[in-house]
Amino acid sequence: MLVVGGIIGWATSRRREKADVKLTETSARQIEVQVLDTALAAINEKVVLPLTNRLSTLQNEYETLLKELKQLRNAITKMYVCRHVVDCPIKLELQKQQTNNNAAAKRKPATNRQREPGREADGTPDCDPGEHGEHGNSRKGAPGTSPGGAVQYR
User: Fold this and answer.
1) Does a structural domain hold residue 91?
2) Are 149 and 138 in contact (CB under 8 A)?
3) Shortest CA distance to 152 belongs to which of 116, 121, 104, 122?
4) Most CB within 10 Å of its CB: which of 26, 42, 112, 137?
């Protein structure tokens, strides 16, 4: 009888523990859902809404720029039909900008080679100003000079 009572007690406590575990899991899920809802609302308020507003502003600016560009293109195409096309200040300004762009494109690209030691970027010697005379000539007998006073570069 004692064994039967132990088994019945164990079974009821086991059921109670399972119910407690289910209740705990359910409450943990509810808390998790609440935390996620709060985080989602915060992200929506602080990130999504400002980005949405910025996107709509940029779209409006884009449409405005497209309209202005179309107007400019129409004006430029009509310029060539004008009887004053030879002396047109707009045409002259556009040609000036185009020649400036072409000149910039023709420049040599920068190289990554090192400068000669002892030289500045503009080709002048890299030295102490007191080491040379008024016009950059070295004093006679100064280190790095020839007997005639000319600077020697290596």
Assistant:
1) yes
2) yes
3) 116
4) 137
